[in-house]
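Service request form, structural biology core

Requester: graduate student, group of Dr. S.
Request type: structure prediction, single chain
Budget code: on file
Notes: please return the result as C-alpha cells.

Sequence provided:
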Amino acid sequence: MSWLAAASTAPESTQQALGYPSLFLLVLIGALVPVVPTGALVSSAAVVAFHQTAPFSLALVFVTASLAAFLGDATLYWLGRRGMKSKNGSRWLEAIRSRAPEERLAQAQEKLADHGVSVLVLSRLVPAGRLPVMLACLMAKWPMRRFVRGNLPACLAWAVTYQLIGILGGSLFKEPWEGVVAAVVLTVVISLAPGLWRRVRPAA
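Core staff response, request fulfilled:
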C-alpha cells in the first residue's frame, strides 16, 4: 500500500497519470489471484481522489475499480468453466477450490439454489464470500452469460461500498495519507471480522 501513501503526496497530475492504471491492474490481478487486498486499494484510492481538486476524480475511481473487478471475475469464471470441462481441471479451478472450504461451499450452494443471482451480488460484499459462491455457480453449471449478468451489479455494489469507506476516511482527516491509513485499517478490520466471529462463536 506504500504506493498509495506516496501517491497521496504527489502532484495531482502524477496521481492521475499513475493512479488509475495502477488501480485497474491491481484490482484486476486481485480478482484473478485473491491475495491482493482489493477493497483496501479502492478505499485508499478514494481517499486520494477525495482530496483532489480535479472534477470526476471519485467517479473515475468507481469506474476503474468496478470495471477491473468485473473483468477479473469474468475471466476467472471463464477459466473455471474451462477447468470444469477439462479432464485434469486447471490451476485456476484448483485455486478457487482451495479457497472455498467445504462448509462455506455447501452454504453457498444452498443459498444459490434458494435465492439465485441475489446471492452472487451479496457475495462480493461479504469478506471471503466471492469464491465459494463462484464455485457454487460453476458446480451448478451456470452459463457464462448468466454469471456475467449477476456479477455486474455485484461489482458495482462492491466498488461503491469500499469507495464510501474511503470517502469517510478522507472526510475525517485533513491529510490524505492519514485518510489512507484509516481506510486501510477499517477494510482490514472488516475483512477479518467474519473469521474472528466464526472462531469465537463456538466457544460462546
